[in-house]
Design a protein that fits this description.
Layout: H1 15-22, H2 28-38, H3 40-57, H4 59-62, E1 83-85, E2 91-104, E3 109-119, E4 121-131, E5 135-143, H5 162-198, H6 200-215, H7 218-232, H8 244-274, H9 278-285, H10 290-298, H11 303-326, H12 338-344, H13 348-353, H14 356-382
Antiparallel strand pairs: 1-2, 2-3, 4-5
Length: about 400
């Protein structure tokens, strides 16, 4: 009851409002993670990528054989499927593989030898090798007792294990994507920030360079840069004979040189808007240096785009390396990548008679590219400020 004699009725909060009041507060990062977790497709893609990168990191230990090891007695051997049930229908606790014999040396046709079973053993002895090029090792994750062999994805025309080569090739193909996108994003953010913040001649020169790069067909530009770098030299090396490390660095440089343009254009547009915000004006009024304004106040506000752009752009770098190696101007033997494996399996005879040589690396490429795209879509939805928590 008030002084005027009127009764004031206070409405009680409903259940939805009470739930909102009692809900814990989350940081922006926690909100993004909660939205991402709800996206099952993105989480599956993240799990797949985690598995792929874990396999490649510990690849030398997981590979049953040296990827460069040749066995001319096992050429074009078909894939071997681990089994738990034998030919008599009996179940075995330990998986095993049947031996195989070559029945037609001309057509390279094999058949199972049901009299020979080789149980799959774990942490088996092998030839000495180095894990991460540093740690000496003599154990492999799995294998079978001699004289048995286990080739999960079969072998190629000189008897190299395709499964081991797929893992070894992933070290090149997957790492090129991450290294290349890291370099190109740094260049793109830096050039885009300069163009957007300073404007004038900076903006004119950088944006015309971006438009020039984007106007050239990417594949032709990659091949032209590769030929130029190999002839003239880059980073202190050149000439026709390049080591595997030099070729790897060359591919990374080429992909980074052409990959920054699209990112720079988008970052430039974002910087044009962000630099007019009140907090940037306040920092400028307080005497903050230009470098600090750009690196501390402006560029962090572009990270939502940068993260999504990086995730979606990585497949392009992987496919770029694959295309170069497939055309014979990328990574070369004795180094191996998924592109080299595709190049070696491109003949019609190979595809018809030994399809596993094509399907094995192609499957890894397809799975990796799809996983990055699905994860990028999930991150884009999670970082959308209009998305409800």
């Amino acid at each position: 009851m008030t002084e005027t004699g009127k009764t004031v009725v206070t409405a009680e909060p409903n259940a939805a409002e009470l739930q909102e009041l009692e809900a814990p507060s989350y940081s922006p990062g926690q909100l993004v993670w909660r939205r991402l977790v709800r996206n099952r497709t993105a989480m599956v893609a993240l799990a797949v990528l985690a598995v792929l990168y874990t396999i490649t990191i510990f690849g030398s230990f997981i590979e049953p054989y040296d990827p460069a090891e040749r066995n001319y007695a096992m050429t074009n051997h078909p894939p071997m499927m681990p089994r738990f049930v034998d030919e008599h229908g009996r179940f075995h606790l330990r998986p095993f593989v049947y031996g195989m014999v070559l029945v037609d040396p001309v057509r390279q046709q094999w058949k199972y030898d049901l009299t020979k079973k080789y149980p799959i053993r774990f942490f088996v002895d092998s030839k000495p090798y180095k894990l991460w090029w540093i740690i000496p090792m003599k154990k492999r994750l799995f294998g079978v007792d001699p004289p048995g062999r286990i080739h999960l994805f079969g072998t190629d025309s000189v008897g190299k294990d395709v499964f081991s080569r797929c893992i070894e090739g992933g070290k090149i193909s997957l790492s090129i994507g991450l290294v290349g996108i890291s370099i190109s994003l740094l260049i793109g953010m830096f050039m885009g920030a300069l163009a957007g913040y300073f404007g004038g001649w900076w903006d004119l020169i950088i944006m015309r360079s971006v438009e020039f790069l984007l106007s050239i067909p990417t594949l032709y530009l990659i091949i032209a840069l590769r030929a130029y770098f190999q002839t003239k030299g880059v980073l202190g090396f050149g000439g026709a004979q390049l080591t595997s490390t030099q070729m790897y660095l060359m591919i990374v440089i080429i992909l980074s040189c052409i990959g920054w343009a699209a990112q720079a254009r988008v970052v430039r547009g974002m910087v044009l808007s962000i630099k007019e915000y009140d907090f940037v004006t306040a920092a400028r009024a307080m005497g903050a240096s230009t470098l600090r304004i750009i690196t501390v106040h402006i560029l962090p506000n572009t990270f939502s785009y940068v993260i999504v752009a990086a995730t979606i752009a990585v497949p392009g770098y992987i496919l770029g390396e694959v295309a170069l190696s497939y055309l014979g101007v990328g990574i070369q033997e004795p180094q191996v990548s998924w592109g080299i494996m595709l190049e070696q399996a491109q003949s019609l005879t190979t595809i018809k008679n030994f399809p596993w040589l094509l399907f094995a690396p192609a499957s890894f490429i397809i799975v990796t590219v799809c996983a990055f795209n699905f994860l990028g879509d999930g991150l884009r939805d999670a970082l959308d400020p209009k998305h409800r928590s």
